[in-house]
Amino acid sequence: MQPGTEYRVLGNMVGRDGLPPQIPKKYYRARTSLGIVPRGSVVTLLAEPESVDREFALQYWANIEFKNQ
Fold first, then answer.
1. Cα separation values, 65 from 17, 46, 60, Å
2. H/E/C letters for each residue in the chain?
3. What is the Cα 13 distance to its own chain's centre?
4. How far apart are CA 13 and CA 38, in angstroms?
5. Angle at Cα 23 formed by Cα 7 and Cα 63, nearest 5°?
6. What residues contact residue 39 under an 8 Å CB cut-off, 6+ apart?
7. Which residues lie closer than 8 Å to 35 by C-beta, 6 or more apart?
8. What does the pLDDT look like over 4-59, one tens digit per residue?
């Protein structure tokens, strides 16, 4: 995934105000929700995604620009 590239969101996503810390089981409370990015929206990737290894999955977090359509 290259910064500056546009992508269409295939499922609803929760936008957050930043990458959460590596605190097990509390990470999702560490950042404020900015709302939902609805399925079908077009977003622009602003920086390379960062991976976060959780016990249950490898998550990717990316800084995006979202233009409400």
1. 12, 7, 16
2. CCCCCEEECCCCEEEECCCCCCCCCCHHHCCCEEEEECCCCEEEECCCCEEEECCCCEEEECCEEECCC
3. 7
4. 7
5. 20
6. 9, 10, 11, 12
7. 14, 15
8. 999 999 999 988 888 877 766 666 667 888 899 999 999 999 999 988 877 788 88
